[in-house]
Amino acid sequence: MEEQEVTALIAIDFSAAFDTVDHDILLDVLQKQYGACGTALNWIDSYLRPRRCRTFFGV
């Protein structure tokens, strides 16, 4: 092995990236610029909206 090779690794954490993006603007861009529509757009919209869940015990 006379050749020396360089190996690089880049790791980016996008876990909180969508917390700083205005969801309405993101949905608008997905629809107008990328043609997202119908079920796909509705699924993304639903995913970005806040959720609440209630659990009842002994009712």
TrEMBL record:
Which PANTHER family does this UniProt record tie to the protein?
REVERSE TRANSCRIPTASE DOMAIN-CONTAINING PROTEIN
This protein is called: Reverse transcriptase domain-containing protein
The species this protein belongs to is Dreissena polymorpha (Zebra mussel)
